[in-house]
């Protein structure tokens, strides 16, 4: 049963990130959010294939899984997400150099941090502890912005979305803290229960943040905020 739930949670993450990543690009041309959604989509697809093919730790897919995980946890679901959401919270459309720079940071995070991270944190390994701490701090700082994002949704009357955004953000932060520092004592060696919770949460984030983005975008268009900002930039 646990293995089936894990499989379903990964399929959920794959489906939501592929669908909403492509939809984000087609509907809003938000390159950064599209990039992060699709990186998670590729990561979850790779993770599922690796597991179905036997879960060999010597497989290149195993190393790729950690690299993609590092991409998102370092600067993907943190810096890239915040810059992408600024488009509807503050009318900020990042120039190409900002998009390239944020992407380069995330790629660097994947290359540098991917080989360091371990599923079982060795507290005697200062480098691994420092990286795990960085991931948690980055997540919590991003959560502060996401709570602001939820407040903005509440302010325009999207109360349900605001509550869902705050709830899934809090749950994602719990997952981030648990990831390295507080493994479930009742879990198995493969951490099946934890990963089921994590994959389900990350999939929910992609759905809820997309609809939150859409609600603020539509509100900005309806109130003329988008036009006013554009005029202000032109001036």
TrEMBL record:
Keywords: Membrane, Transmembrane, Transmembrane helix
Ranges annotated as spanning the membrane: 6-22, 34-53, 65-89, 96-116, 128-149, 161-181, 193-211
This protein's name: Transporter
Species of provenance: Nocardioides antri
Organism taxonomic ancestry: Bacteria, Bacillati, Actinomycetota, Actinomycetes, Propionibacteriales
